[in-house]
Amino acid sequence: MMRFLERIIRWLNIGTAAAAGLVMVLMMLHITLDVGVRYFFNGQIVGTLEWVSFYYMVALVFLGLGHVEMKNENIRVDLFAQMMPAHVQLALYILACMLGLAFFGMLFWQSLSDALRATRRGEEAMSNFRFLIWPARWALPIGFAGALLAIIANLGRAILRRQAL
Amino acid sequence: QTNFIANSFYEGAVPMSGEGYIRWAELVQDLSDGDLVPEVFTGTVLLAPRAALQGIQDNVVQVAHHAAIYTPSDLPVANAVQELGFAYSDPLTAIFAVTDFSMNNPVQLEEWQANGLVYLGAYATPAYVLMCSNPVRNLQEIRGKRIRTAGSAVSVWVEEAGGIPVNVPSSEMYTGLERGSLDCATNAASDLVDRSLLEVAQHTTLLSTGMYWSGPQWGYNPGFWAGLTTEQREVLMEASARSMARMVIAYSEKADAGLQASLAAGGNVYEPEADLAEHVAAFRDRTSADAAEKARTDFGIAEPEALIGDFQDTMQKWQELLADIDPEDEDALTALAMQEIFSKIDAATYGVQ
Amino acid sequence: MTNLEVGVAGIVAALVLIAIRIPIGLALGLVSIVGIAVMFNMNVAWGMISATPFDYVGQWELSAAPMFLLMGFICSSTDMTRGLFLSLRLYLARLPGGLAITSVGACAFFAAALARLPGGLAITSVGACAFFAAASGSSVATASAMSRMAVPEMLDNGYDRGLATGTIAASGTLGSLIPPSVLLILYGVYAQVSVGQLFMAGFIPGILSALIYMAMIVIRVKLKPELAGSVRFEPTAEERREAFRDVWPLPTLILVVLGGIFSGAFSPTEAGALGAFAALVIAAIRRKLTRAALFEAVSQAVISTASIFIILIGSLFFTRFLALSGFPRAFADAILSVSTETWWILLAVAIIFLILGMLIDSIGLLLLTLPILVPLVNEAGINPIWFGIIVIKLLEIGLITPPIGLNVYMINGALNNRVTLPEIFRGITWFLAMDLLTLTILIGFPILTLWLPSLAY
Ligand code: NA
Ligand code: NA
């Protein structure tokens, strides 16, 4: 059962990370095309700045969060923990997971209510034209939820193995 | 003693922050004999520009500058009125008229209240001018030029005049002009010095392409505001009146200084030629005529004619009030604002829910 | 507790949490939320959580970071550095300087001029690192790409183990100084300085660092020839041709990216996107663009981006928390009350980095300290571009000093412990001495840093 849940969480996070990767490639192509149009046709693709700022960056950063948690690729300092006995390491890891649940839980809760509010009032940004931005808000709760699930999965794995990840 | 946090996202060199917050804080302390102590944050240390409104609502800051164009869906009334920015070019009239309008028009007042802020004064930029790497004096010369614009009305006009409106961050105006991905920027002439544009844009055309005033220069959190005494609120009103006078004087000086510096550095300053001036005038008339319709369709205002009409009347009223006043006399301007705006507001009840 | 005391307590709490292996972004973020709730109330903390991540992540200037990360990972996953390394070796063995300059540019020219000098393989590695640095956004990526190919080669040729690994660990740090550089992007966004200007500012200090490393290697090997072992290298004509055929990718890419930025043709974000695109095209031409290579590059870029940005978000929270506590102002006042001389401020900053650098690595340390340092620098009136380059150099020194030296651990891991950590750290000592020399020169002659940006703007 535990393993089944873990597998589901893993694939969910791989799915959103794949979406983040796709967005990254799209962003590269979009900007390249914009520069090309500017140099070869003295034109422009309207909205490149807005797409990059409000959609691509937000999606590629937040949709990748769960995958990073799952793979324990967070940047952290191992030095002192490594000098501790194994059970202290496990305790510290469990503490890290608890704090992670609290932190990402708060971020998830607040960003979810922000996304709901933005959706309800059809949030827009204004530049040279008006631009819908509420859909981009949803990348945050999705990403934070992925991180929460990943921490739960990792915590379960660490406790079952009695070993810090 | 009341300590509170004040925030303006502009750098300290911009009058909205320099005069409007840093010097304003000293003024507030002086006027209240040290009873009111604002701690000022300028720049984006505390809040991103887009987040200022929410920062006020959530009481992260107790007072802040908020540019309404960043939140069009939250502040449709303020944005509908900003659409007229293209139709005016005198910041002195605008700063007081917008304050008058924003503190008295019921529709606008309701919007401030619904968005959790207490409005206590406006800002107004000088009329934006064209700063270009090559001369742009007539319709012929504007054709095909890539022009950095900020705002929908200006970009529509640029397009109609044959140019290409481009949206890049203001931080990239300099490099854009320098490398030729931009031909012109439309901004206040103070940017010739503040952003060093005079190095890359030697040709300035004094063609007014609109000005900005939307949203509160001082938007207070309602809970904080309600917790102040009547005397404290009166102090803040007087601080608003004098700081608006200072801001508008300082901004005009900075814009003039920018033009002078450009000339001194060998740059050129032009008046637009007849065809370009006429094209803008015609467009300006059209936007004024369409403002009410636009307020209805784009911003969903229920009675747009009344709203736009009230705004235009207030502007007219202040043009007349200011006709005989020295535009650089800080004391006279302060007195006028006190007399015509703030003395008519009841500090005991205004903004208190 | 006064707000200032809460600020100090928050800094201590964050450091303790980081020391017990709590992820850095999480430690900074959580401390900030608690600290703000203590100073004000939970409402203000919720307001910060709501207003910060969405509005700051979407900054145009920041979008250069994932693009340069992607470009660097495409370079390493499609093995783009190998041909350059082989060619540099060939030119070092025989060819005259003139041909080298026309083929691979200034850095290899310098290496070729030293062809008759001892320690050639180590010098080649420094040169190749400098090249890869110009195509990669990060130091660790640079060291990682070079360690797999250059270190075994040096070890097989009887090089001193400390010299071989020290060369790569130290030269890898060029990755953040020679543009493009993710650290410089983050610094630029925080200090509100043009990223393009910062990129230009980092170029000469980066090349200077490389040249000083090279000179040191030459002198050491001359005095003690056994350090460089006995290199027997007789390339066949076929090997020569093959190396020549594959030398072009990296210089081409660098031309696109740095040429674009330095000439002012592209903004950093555009250069990053075009660079990543060009790397893909080059890989396709070389028939190295397999589905696996592309997949690896993109997934690495996604992971790196997300793990950097989670620290960035924590750091943005921390900035607000500290600003509200009044700590940066009090700290700046305390430092400036001792003296307002630039040397004193730099000394104070260097000491902070030296101490914290023992604990935290470059991105975390940069994002942890900027909220405090940027107000200090502004108040002291120090040129923020010059200061940025000094800060990056200090951070890079931290990458190779014990006990935490990310580059050192990475090389140790990449070589499967073939060279022990103490051996690597011993080999680095000489490079550290050179870094201090470079740092002194950069502090003594700000023109070295500020000349290129002044030309362009
Ligand atoms: Na680099
Ligand atoms: Na270190």
How are the SSEs ordered, and which strands pair?
The complex is a heterotrimer of chains A (165), B (353) and C (457).
Chain A: H1 2-41, H2 48-62, H3 65-70, H4 79-82, H5 86-120, E1 124-126, E2 130-132, H6 134-137, H7 139-161
Antiparallel strand pairs in A: 1-2
Helix pairs in contact in A: 1-2, 1-7, 5-7
Chain B: E1 2-8, H1 15-31, E2 36-42, H2 52-57, E3 63-64, H3 76-82, H4 91-104, H5 106-114, E4 118-119, E5 129-132, H6 139-142, E6 146-148, H7 152-160, E7 164-166, H8 173-179, E8 184-187, H9 191-194, E9 203-205, E10 219-220, H10 222-227, H11 230-264, E11 268-270, H12 274-297, H13 304-321, H14 330-340
Parallel strand pairs in B: 1-2, 1-3, 6-7, 6-8, 9-11
Antiparallel strand pairs in B: 3-10, 4-10, 5-8, 5-9
Chain C: H1 3-19, H2 24-39, H3 42-57, H4 64-77, H5 82-93, H6 97-104, H7 106-113, H8 120-133, H9 139-156, H10 161-172, H11 174-177, H12 182-191, H13 195-223, H14 237-245, H15 249-262, H16 268-285, H17 291-325, H18 327-338, H19 342-357, H20 362-380, H21 384-398, H22 406-414, H23 421-444, H24 447-456
Helix pairs in contact in C: 1-2, 1-17, 2-3, 2-17, 3-17, 4-16, 4-17, 5-7, 5-8, 5-14, 6-7, 8-9, 8-10, 8-13, 9-10, 9-22, 10-23, 12-20, 12-21, 13-21, 13-23, 13-24, 15-16, 17-20, 18-20, 19-20, 19-21, 20-21, 21-23
The complex binds sodium ion (2 copies).
Describe the structure in your own words.
The complex is a heterotrimer of chains A (165), B (353) and C (457). Chain A is mainly alpha-helical and 165 residues long. Chain A has helices at residues 2-41, 48-62, 65-70, 79-82, 86-120, 134-137, 139-161; strands spanning 124-126, 130-132. In chain A, strand 1 and strand 2 (130-132) form a beta hairpin. In chain A, helix 1 (2-41) runs antiparallel to helix 7 (139-161). Chain A is elongated, with a radius of gyration of 20 Å. Chain B is globular and about 60 Å long. The model of chain B has no long low-confidence stretch (mean pLDDT 90). The model of chain C is unreliable at 93-116 (pLDDT under 50). The radius of gyration of chain C is 22 Å and the shape is globular. With 457 residues, chain C is an all-alpha fold. One sodium ion (NA) is lined by residues 357-358, 398, 401, 404-405 of chain C. Chain A: Residues 27-159 form the Tripartite ATP-independent periplasmic transporters DctQ component domain.
